[in-house]
Each structure stands twice: as C-alpha cells, then as structure tokens.
C-alpha cells in the first residue's frame, strides 16, 4: 500500500475533464486515480451485515470487526426486531416493490397511512413521500421555484438543496453560514421577488444547528418563508423528535419541513410536510415524485413501526444525547478540534494534511474503528476531517474503545506535528 498522494490534486481538479469523449475520463484523471488507489479504497467500503454499532468490514483480503462511527443509524433501530417483523409481513403481502409512480399506481394503503401519521406527528396539514432523500430535497425546491424566483441558501447547505435551486432556474444566492445580517442583506437586495430561504436543521459536515431564532426574526421582517431540511435532526431533536424546528419552538416560522428516512428512520427515502395547498401543488410539479417509483411497501411498513417506536419511547433520544455528550466531552478533553458541533454529528478536524487524513484513517480501520475521511471539495482544504456519527445503540464500551483508538492514532500524531 502506498503512503503518499498528490497533495496538490483532488477530485475538484477533474470536474471539468479535458477528455474528448464524455464517456472516457482523461488519462490524467485515470493516472491520478491509480496513484491514489490506496487512499480512495477507503470509499465505498464493503460491509457485511447491518449498519449497527459494530460492523464487519473488508480490509484487503480479510474481514475486520469494527466499531461503527460512520453510519447514520442515530436511534439504533436498523436491527430492531419489531421493525424487521413489520417489514417482513409487508414483504409477504405486497411483494418486493411498488411497481408504479405515486401518481399512477404506486401508492398502497400503507403509503397513505404513513403520510397521515407523519402529518399528525409533525403537526402539519399534509405530507408526501419520496423514494430518495436527495431526490426529495432537490425535487421539493425545484417543484416550487421558477425562473425569476430567488432561492437564498445557507452557504453550507447540502448539495441536494443547491441542485434543486439550480434545477428550478431560480436565481441562487448564498448567505454566510448562520449569519442573520448576511441573510438580511440578501433579502433587502431581492425585495419584491418571490423568495425562499433554505437551511438545514443540523449541518451534515459540521454538526451545528441552524440558528433559527435569529434567522427567523429576519425572515419575519421580510415576510419570507423558510424551508428546512431536517435530515440529521428528525427524531433525534425536539421534545417529541420533530427536529430542530421543534427544539427552537419555531413551527410558525417554518412552513415547510423536509426530512429523510435514511438516518434516524433507518430506511430509505424522505418526506416533506407542510400546508395542504402547498403539497397538493407540489405533487404535480415535483418530478422526482411524479416520475419515480413509489417506496417499496415493505420499507413503508418498517417506517410506520419506527414512527410508533419513537413516539412511545423517548428514552432512545435521551440515550443518543447522553452518548453524544460523553463522546464529545472526551474528545474535547483530548484537545481535538470539533468545530462548532453541538450534536451527534461530530467532525474531528485535522487540518490540511491530506496524506495524514488517509494514513490515520487506514490505521484506525486496521485497529477496529470504522471511520471515513472527508476530503476537499466536500469541506474546505484546511478543514479536512473525519465525521463521527454517534447513535443510541452505542454502548459505553463501544465509545471508550473508539476513544482509545482515536487517542492512540489521531491525538498522538497531531501532537508530533
């Protein structure tokens, strides 16, 4: 295995490829990929079994048992026996797939039941389901905005939100992360236009929350609605698990809430909840909804059971927060840079040394800690990191073992540099 990569090159350098054939990447790209194979083999890992707190991962020609701090199984429900049983019953009755788009033939009674129960849970008039979190976020924004409108996004918004704004052909503007003054300036500049402010509940690379109290004060002043993506916060935050909007009691300021099923719900897909009139329009103009197959009924049955479990058992959320506070506290005692994270999404920032990023990741994986590197352009070039995901399913033994490995690898190496 090599121990050096081209630190002056990254995926960003090959976005505009100089190949004559779009189906054939350039020789420069292929050569760079081959030289950096030892580093990029950390991506698309081969996991054996469910994404639980411990997982078996392929390392070369062997399988390694590892503590899993990479998966988004925040509530620890991916292996819950009630969820699995509900999905299995639906699989026997409905088969493997919906075999149709929601608008035509894909919606079973289970889909309608989940929409209704999510609306009640979220305290909203209506809900619609998507078979993809990325596609749902993108399709919601693209379905609502048009050329001449303005999408005003937090500078650290997820690519799915940016893609939706671009696809809509609306003018796309970015305000400085969590900065109400920057947002206010853009809203002043675009007065008279149809506008939508877009934020995330928890920012996926940084682990901090949208500053809804201050941002909402600005949007109220300009009579502009907020769209929030609660992908990493749904079920995990708020008194009842309704996310950051509930955490800040900001329901009146956020008319449209999107969330994914791929994290705390431990499945796949997403949903948007809001006013009935908004969603009745969106069902016909969000292409990822109308032109994609509906969620498999077995997945929907599992989602219904997850919603039932988290509604009756608030201890899962409490356990998640206890684990998060313990893990973050110990990392801070080690002197590590966690950025502005205050949640179960815990970045461990190591700086700009790309070789160090990959070397330490290999070492941690070999020692039994499954973490993934986050490289530029996903984050700034001087903010390379690992992103740990704490869950309710982790035991104190899991976390202590992970912390020991981090201390023996990242901490010791950073002290030497």
Q: Can you walk through the features of this model?
A:
The chain is α/β, with parallel strands linked by helices and 417 residues long. The protein folds into 2 domains: 35-68 and 315-416, Alpha-Beta Complex (Aspartate Aminotransferase, domain 1); 81-312, Type I PLP-dependent aspartate aminotransferase-like (Major domain) (Aspartate Aminotransferase, domain 2, 3-Layer(aba) Sandwich), CATH 3.40.640.10. It has helices at 27-35, 37-40, 81-94, 109-122, 133-144, 159-168, 180-189, 212-221, 244-247, 276-285, 287-290, 297-312, 315-333, 354-367, 396-416; strands at 47-48, 54-59, 62-68, 126-130, 150-154, 171-175, 195-200, 225-229, 256-260, 270-274, 345-351, 369-370, 373-374, 384-389. The strands form 3 sheets. The chain has a 7-stranded mixed sheet with strand order 4-10-9-8-7-5-6, sandwiched between helices. Strands 1-2-3-12 form a 4-stranded mixed sheet. The radius of gyration is 22 Å and the shape is globular. The model has no long low-confidence stretch (mean pLDDT 95).
What is this entry, summarized?
The protein is of the alpha/beta class and 417 residues long. The protein has two domains: 35-68 and 315-416, Aspartate Aminotransferase, domain 1, CATH 3.90.1150; 81-312, 3-Layer(aba) Sandwich (Aspartate Aminotransferase, domain 2). The chain has helices at residues 27-35, 37-40, 81-94, 109-122, 133-144, 159-168, 180-189, 212-221, 244-247, 276-285, 287-290, 297-312, 315-333, 354-367, 396-416; strands spanning 47-48, 54-59, 62-68, 126-130, 150-154, 171-175, 195-200, 225-229, 256-260, 270-274, 345-351, 369-370, 373-374, 384-389.
